[in-house]
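Allow me, if you will, to draw on your knowledge of protein folds for a short while. I have a record of one protein: its chain in single-letter code and its fold written as discrete structure tokens. I remain grateful for any guidance, and I place the record below:
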Amino acid sequence: MRNYQLLALSFLFIFNSAVAQTPDELAIRKTLAEQTVAWNEGNLEAFMQGYWKSDSLMFIGKSGLTYGWQPTLDNYKKGYPDTAAMGKLDFDIVQVRRLSVLYFFVVGKWHLARTAGDLRGTFTLIFKKNKNKWVIVSDHSS
């Protein structure tokens, strides 16, 4: 009897974990996964498709505050001029929280494995639903 109870509790835990992610959250996680693939292929333009293509995009990083999609891409190209500098990216998503119908807040950790030495840090992202697509409108990475 105890084995059946343990099995039932395990099933409930797995089921609750699986259904806890809404379609919107899954779409956001998919965007982050696509960004990881693009980065690891050395394709910064594809990586940037996860960002809002707007002059109002806000990126806060080690160089300070940058506004705009193109200036953000230009900064990435300066900081990571080739695939060796880019390394291999992986994200550890700590929290995905809905703020409203149109906004999500994401907290995570990033890691770049590189021959020149690994880099790591944390990030907070604000995603907005724009034209039926979830895009990053604010990124604070350190």
